[in-house]
Amino acid sequence: MQLLSVNINHAGYSGNNAEIIKNVVLSVKSGELLGLIGPNGAGKSTTLKAIMGLLPETNGKVEFPGRGRSYAYIPEQPVLYEGLTLWEHLELAAAAYEIERGVFVSRAEDLLRLFRLMEVKHQIPTTFSKGMQQKVMLILGFLLEPAVYVVDEPFIGLDPRGTRDFMALLNQARSKGAGVLMSTHVLDTAEKICDTFVLMNAGTIVAQGNLSEIRAQCQLFEGSLFDCFDKILENGQ
Fold first, then answer.
1. Across all residues in the chain, what is the average pLDDT?
2. Structurally, how many domains does the chain consist of?
3. What average pLDDT does the segment 189-215 reach?
4. Quick one: pLDDT band at residue 68, thresholds 50, 70, 90?
5. Which domain holds residue 35?
6. Cβ-proximal residues to 215 (8 Å cutoff; 6+ apart), any chain
């Protein structure tokens, strides 16, 4: 089942930055982990913002045809409210998405224990380390249990144990039918965990498919994802 369908002709900001990305066509299916791959400045984060309707200039269509417009966005840079405790952040999210109180408390406490933040749930997360703040964003995302997870550079700031816990939760969500669109430039990790890939450079898609298909497009039939992407950049695609 297709959970997300994207066909963006062009998108960007205002003025001279009105066309940062162009001709971006992709889809995410139930249970699929799609890696949005590319170097810094390739247009990955802009693509995610366009999908969520956060750009002033967007020409194209984004649909969530599977289970309604249900997604959770986990940004690269944590977005936190000054003066709210961690628990109050979770309560605010639960209220916004109308999660029943008993379900919320059980789910939130399980996530806090998993990420080892139970003891600081009544503290202000804007004072936390970058890694702890990233875990707060992960907890908020998984609290919602959406149809689609949109994740921007999740591995930055996470320690190995946090990365393991994140991936375990993500795989659990996928086993229940959720789809994942994950932006990352950590190619060796992406190669191990993603089912399919969309490779971007200079604001547009330069290759897409599973690893075998990417290799065939690059004529590197034994190459790594890094090798394939490096060849694409060398060829100026």
1. 92
2. 1
3. 94
4. low
5. 2-234
6. 221, 222, 223, 228
